[in-house]
Amino acid sequence: MLNPEWTAELKKGSIQLCIMATLVGGRKYGFQMIKEIRDLSGGYFDLKEGTLYPALHRLEQRGYLRSEWVTDEGGTPKKYYVLTDDGRQALAAARAEWDRLSTAVRTVLEAGK
Amino acid sequence: MIAPSAEPDTEAYLARVRNAMFGLSSGTRDGIVGELREHLRELVAEKGSVAAALREMEEPARLARGFREVYGFGPGFAAALAAGAALISLLTVPALGGLSVIVLLVLYSYCVLVSLYGGKKTGGLCGLAAGIARSAAVAAQWYHLPAAYAVDPGALALFVLGSALLPVAGVLAGETKERYIRGRPLEF
Questions:
Q1: Which residues contact B4 (CB under 8 A, 6 or more apart)?
Q2: Are residues B57 and B80 in the same domain?
Q3: pLDDT along chain A (113 residues), means of 10
Q4: In this structure, are B174 and B90 located in the same domain?
Q5: Contact A12/A3 with Cβ under 8 angstroms?
Q6: CA of B28: how far to CAs of B18, B23, B144, in Å?
Q7: Are residues B60 and B149 in the same domain?
Q8: CB atoms within 10 A of CB B23
Q9: Mean pLDDT of B55-80
Q10: Final residue of a structural domain among B23, B46, B71
């Protein structure tokens, strides 16, 4: 069984990428992102609100996201997040880096079999 | 996880979150609580009951810690803390003898703690306010009672250094914590 701290370390580098990637298709709010990331990852990423929301606010501070309050048809206001142009560029760069990283790790792991 | 409550109440939970975020500006806290209220509303719908939803939520203090790391203290709270540092610094003038050294150590600890808890900007502001206030206090004493001060260059240099390092200590503590946070694994 892998040490939980090691698992957390492995997840850490990818979660920001996943958060931003969920916004490529359009604006979303926090709860929606948690569900989408959980479903798409087959339950591997089950983000707590204390992880997601501060991360969203930090990404917004860095200019990668912007947020807007929108009232839905039921009259409920929700805070939606949208990728900015800087965010799209950062995501593209991070995605390319992720591809290089995962290829390199897979190659090394395969060689070690 | 939140312990099950006999009368689970989302607003009571949100009030605890708001209180735990003390020091952040009021507008920031209102925005965060509003966002969490909507999160809870959706979670209640998914889980089927308020009690079940609240069991899923994290402890308010833990949530608040995450947001404090993002925002630090708001301007009003930071100004109040800086005023506190300036007041404490008045007890660090050399005329008070040994007491001034003890209070100076307390002042350094104060700036470091503020920085660790509320961010390097607030810590630096406290150090700056304290450094300026103690320098002004000594200058005022010297102006009114020049005979009471025999200016020893070594002691003067030590005093200036002690004052100048206050904002440095305030900033460094927060900066060190920020570097630690960047390297810390996210919690799931």
A1: B51, B54, B55
A2: no
A3: 74 84 95 95 90 93 94 87 96 92 92 82
A4: yes
A5: no
A6: 10, 10, 46
A7: no
A8: 22
A9: 91
A10: B71
* Structural domains of chain A, count: 1
Question: Residue A52 is part of which domain span?
Answer: 4-111
How many inter-chain contacts (A to B, CB under 8 Å) are there? 69
Among A31, A39, A44, the residue to mutate for chain B (most B Cβ within 10 A)? A31
Q: Is residue B4 part of a domain?
A: no
Is there a contact between B170 and B114 (Cβ–Cβ < 8 Å)? yes
Q: With CB atoms and an 8 Å threshold, state whether B70 touches A76.
A: no
Closest alpha carbon within chain A to B66? A54
Q: Is residue B5 domain-resident?
A: no
ipTM of the complex: 0.86
Cα(B31)–Cα(A71) distance, integer angstroms: 15
In this prediction the pTM is 0.78
Domain residues for the domain of B27 are 10-71
Tens of pLDDT, residues B126-185: 999 999 999 998 888 888 877 666 667 787 888 899 899 999 999 999 899 888 876 665
Radius of gyration for chain B, computed over Cα atoms and rounded to the nearest angstrom: 22
Select from B38, B63, B185 the Cβ nearest to the Cβ of A78. B38
Q: Is residue B188 part of a domain?
A: no
Indicate the number of domains in chain B: 2
